[in-house]
Amino acid sequence: MAPVGTEAIILRKIDFRETSVILDLLSMKLGKIRGVLKGVRKPKSRVAPLAFHPGSYIFVFVYPRSRGGLMLLHAPQLVQAFPMAGAKRSAIWQLMLRLVNLFLPEQEKCQEVVRALLESGQMMMGKVSPEVVYVWFKMKMVRLLGYGLELNRCLLCRRQGKLGFISGRLGGVLCDRCLPRDRRAVRISRAVLGVMRYLERTPAERLEVIKKIPAEILEKTNFFLNLVLQYHAEAGYIWWQDERNIFAGSN
Ligand SMILES: [Zn+2]
């Protein structure tokens, strides 16, 4: 079958056999896919290491799988690398890639997630606080996956006042009156709700102007987004544990 040429972000790389790698890609044309790239770990390989490095944006040819085997990747070329200054930015960028890999359904075409990830990588290389970009991206992803997120009206009665709770299951806020209808909804403060609404309407390129969001508010925001994601997660492990350190000591 004819190959498909597509741009893609590399979400994960796994060494495979003697000289090959398996790549998880978020591609423009085929959605999230897994494929094998052969022979690139040989000293004489002509493929540049950055062209199969996690976080790189590449152009690659994809050969559809034959009889249940892995897809075959061929001749990747680097379109853009996202070198992060410092261990923290680097770690948060890797967390973003993992988040996408974990939550995006296989082969679901989601070009908007690709774009949001590219914008986030771009912002992460600048001066913006990486925690802000992380939470911004996660909020965007929750919405693009169709998991919510209603922040302005009660999800059940559509009232706009007294929105004191957030429901992970329903994907948004509840008013005091409707609270009994989701016993697992948790209290959300006006300050945190305010920051969530603000991040939601701020485009990536405007994140730079954000002066300071207190770390505890950002952490709470992240927690509420995790409540929504967790409701949809099939992962049987604590996928958010690596996030623990990213809000500590931030300013
Ligand atoms: Zn209500």
Task: Describe how the helices and strands are arranged.
Blueprint (H helix, E strand, L loop, with lengths): L3 E13 L3 E8 L3 E7 L19 E7 L7 E10 L6 H17 L7 H14 L5 H15 L20 E3 L4 E3 L11 E2 L2 H12 L13 H18 L19
Parallel strand pairs: 3-5
Antiparallel strand pairs: 1-2, 1-4, 2-3, 4-5, 6-7, 6-8
Helix pairs in contact: 1-2, 1-3, 2-3, 3-5, 4-5
In a nutshell, what does this entry contain?
This protein has about 250 residues and is of the alpha+beta class.
Describe this structure in words.
The chain has 251 residues and is of the alpha+beta class. It folds into two domains: 77 residues, Nucleic acid-binding proteins (OB fold (Dihydrolipoamide Acetyltransferase, E2P), Beta Barrel), CATH 2.40.50; 157 residues, de novo design (two linked rop proteins) (Up-down Bundle). It contains five helices and eight strands, in the order βββββαααβββαα. The strands form two sheets. Strands 1-2-3-5-4 form a five-stranded mixed barrel. Strand 1 and strand 2 form a beta hairpin. The termini are far apart. The structure holds zinc ion. Zinc ion binds next to loops.
Assign the structural class, choosing from mainly alpha, mainly beta, alpha/beta, alpha+beta, or little secondary structure: alpha+beta
Q: CATH homologous superfamily of the largest domain - what is it? A: Recombination protein O, C-terminal domain
Task: Count the E strands.
Answer: 8
Provide the number of structural domains.
2
* Strand arrangement, major sheet: 1-2-3-5-4
CATH hierarchy class name of the largest domain: Mainly Alpha
Count of runs of 4 or more consecutive helical residues: 5
Amino- and carboxy-terminal Cα gap = 52 Å
Uncertain runs: none
**Helix and strand pattern:** EEEEEHHHEEEHH
Architecture (CATH level 2) name of the largest domain = Up-down Bundle
Let me know the largest β-sheet. Answer: 5 strands, mixed, barrel
Helical proportion? 25-40%
Shape: elongated
